[in-house]
Amino acid sequence: MGFGAALAWQIAFLFIARDPVRYRPLMIPSIIEKFSYGGAVVILVLQGRMHSSDLVFAGMDLVLGVLFVMAYFRTPQRTS
To answer: Which pTM was predicted?
Structure first.
């Protein structure tokens, strides 16, 4: 993923954090982003194409993905 896309997602995460009810739908692509990166790194490490030390960052993303899933289901839907 390019630097620009990664930066854009970090800004999107800040928007979600400021108003989770309003940006609840944006949590779905956020979950996909977190699990796709974490899963890709795990697969590449298992294939021997990345160093096992990269699992630290993949693990953080997978944990954040789980937290996004929990937040999605705990955040009420917008009523207006």
So the answer is: 0.86
